[in-house]
Amino acid sequence: MTCGKALIRFGRSLGLLAAFLGCVGTASIAQDQSTTNTAVSKTITVPLTVAVSATNDVQRVFVGRLEPLRVVDLAFQISGQILELPVSAGEGLKKGELIARLDITDFELALARAQASFDLATSEFKRSAELANRGAGSEARLDTAKAQLAQSEVALREAERRLAQTRIEAPFDALVGRIFSEAYSNTTPAAPIVRLQDVSEMRVYISLPEEIAALARTRAEDFSITATFPAAPRYEAELILREFVTEADPVAQTYVVEFAIAGELDFRLLPGMTANVVARLEGSGGTGSVVIPVSAIDTTSAPEPRVWIFDESNGTVRPRTVRLGLPRENAIVVLEGLAAGQRVVSGGWWKLTDGMNIRPDVH
Which residues form the Multidrug resistance protein MdtA-like C-terminal permuted SH3 domain (predicted)? Predict the structure, then answer.
């Protein structure tokens, strides 16, 4: 009886042990399957594209506006009647030429009064100084005469200055853009008389989108910029970068770039005319430039752009820094860092890591 009970207990123990071993085996298999699934999940599917050789120079055309080097509105600093206004709109002026003159009668009379007061004060000062040196005059009288002389000298200089302000002369070689007043009319201080345009150097203004503005600012030497003008057929001018406005237009998100026209200016061109600006960016030597989709550029690698190159020998991808050129619709030119025929990831690069295995998307 005792032996029977012992055998029953032994049998139950064997059953429990077998059940335990089964659970352990099942857990081990599940863990192996999970590890296998994790390894498989690290291989992701991404689209690939082939870099194509850029056989032609890349260029973009922009509409620009021709403007003078500077525009100045000239005005009298005193009130008076305009007696002479010998200029007309569109006329060219040399530096120092007369533009407008006021009636000087009142100002000449004021200068004569100031000169007379100055002469009287000078004489009075000399007499007071002579008397003081001989002990016949007081120091107080000498001080008063000295103060009156100083005041009369200031009044004389002011009268001379006001007389000089009755003339407006060209401060530089200029083109008369507009006339605001007429001869024999009365004018007041700061009321504009004429508008002058400095055409010693003509400027061309264009607005660049942000992706091209970044290239133009950092690699201006790689660009060849020329301009043609509808108003001057068969005339083409080379442009030189002068200024780059770093504040973007709040609506269009573009940047204003200012160029100067190099060489001789065509006489047919006037401020405000339209210019067709052509920006060319030539490929560099070596392997040559290539074209890839814009979507292949890894934008998370700022400030240096990069692409993910697919290695067909082992099915992995690695990042590579590239130098970009101008965009072409939905594609962009790569000047350095990539050769024609290489395959790059064209989408989903934000999920990649260096050396990761990927599966090309065949669709």
Answer: 290-348
